[in-house]
Amino acid sequence: MIMSRLPKASDVVVTAIRDRILRQRLPVGHRLPSEVELAAELGVGRVAVREALRLLERDGLVEVRRGVTGGVFVRHPELGQVSDVISLLFATRSTTIAEWVEFRLLLEPTAAELAARHATAEQREVFAVHAAAAGVDLAYVPDLHLAVAEASGNSVLAVSLESLRRPFTEHFRPRLISEADLEATSAAHIRISERILAGDAPGARRAMTRHLTGYRDYMEQRGLMSAPLINLDQR
Q1: 83 in Cβ contact with 164 (< 8 Å)
Q2: Mean pLDDT, rounded, of the chain
């Protein structure tokens, strides 16, 4: 007979607190019951509560503050943490630039098309800045792409691409990028922004596809498609 394992007391506490935060949609900064109160409420020892809070803090769902004004407060996970982990996963799995390009060609043209349809007035101001830009700094190249995802109106798409911010920056090979390359990137970003501002969904898709296809060709010409996505020299 297969015996099912009883959950640890700390697992029960983790589930109870996580459910409370998510089901009640508790905002960041909301004070949760103290360790003593949680232990009494859930019928467990304080050691189990302390272990559960450590796990929840690791996952970015709570913050435990010490001292007179301390307590247990709600947090929401930050995409920066997720992005760091994904970057490490890509590095350990030897993910290639070819895979990265293929992924982006699948998603980003659709994101641009949706952005042209759904961008809010505030988001359109961001594209107006990109459309008027005289040049582009390598450090800010990801910003246009992430702004497009955010303006798509699809939270899954936006979160997915925002969680890849670190791989976006860590795959660059600065020594191979010339001023002419940056100018071409700037021109492509301007075209994409203009099509989004015009509400031209098919045009925005074409502009993004053209931009990413050019990026793919650039990488192929330099023999980098089979290279690791994460450039460890950037770390």
Answers
A1: yes
A2: 89
- Say how far apart CA 191 and CA 12 lie, in whole Å: 53
Contact present, 167 and 155 (Cβ < 8 Å): no
> Whole-prediction pTM value?
0.77
Every domain of the chain and the residues it spans: 9-74, 79-222
What is 79-222's CATH number? 1.20.120.530
- According to CATH, the topology of domain 9-74 is Arc Repressor Mutant, subunit A (1.10.10)
Helix-helix angle 201-221:97-118, to 10 degrees: 160
Residue type, 148: V
Cα distances (angstroms) measured from residue 108 to each of 63, 147, 167: 35, 11, 15
Q: What span, in angstroms and rounded, lies between the C-alpha atoms of 15 and 20?
A: 8
- 165-212 per-position pLDDT tens digit: 888 877 776 666 788 888 888 899 999 999 999 999 999 999 999 999
Burial class (CB within 10 angstroms; exposed 0-12, middle 13-18, buried 19+) of 116: buried
